[in-house]
Specification:
This protein is of the alpha+beta class. It is built from 4 helices and 10 strands.
Length: 139
């Protein structure tokens, strides 16, 4: 696909990548949270997703790519794994998954943890307390 001064999309894309033995670092524009951004057909796409699609294939609808290397600017398909949103969130080291207790001090155990559709954890004890308080206020 030709564009920008006769260069193909692939040429424009790969000139913005610094390949090393490990991560392939995106050297151009990045989102505020560190993901590479690439201008394509009047819009912006995530660089790691485009690299995966160029070298591996289509990403199934509703699926995400997990950076196994934890480097959001990496576009090396060998460092990317197709996962569900819930799995991607569960694996995330920055979303509080290392926490063992909720803000109220209840332990996150199998019995005390509810998994929300979007992949977040919810403390069942806190949920029960909220419902109990709501019933008390209504009566």
């Amino acid at each position: 696909m030709a564009g920008h001064l006769g260069r193909t999309t692939e040429e424009r894309f790969w000139e913005k990548v610094d390949k090393t033995d490990g991560c392939w670092h995106w050297t151009a524009a990045k989102s505020p949270d560190g993901y590479g951004r690439f201008h394509l057909a009047g819009g912006v796409v995530m660089a790691h997703r485009l690299a995966y699609e160029l070298l591996v294939g289509e990403i199934p609808d509703g699926m995400q790519l997990d950076h196994l290397c934890r480097n959001r600017a990496c576009v090396n398909p060998a460092h990317l794994e197709v996962v569900t949103n819930a799995e991607n969130i569960r694996r995330s080291p920055i979303r509080g998954w290392a926490k063992t207790h909720c803000a109220q001090g209840h332990e996150f155990t199998g019995e005390n943890t509810r998994w929300r559709k979007e992949g977040r954890r919810q403390c069942k004890a806190c949920d029960r307390d909220r419902h109990r308080e709501a019933r008390r206020v209504r009566s």
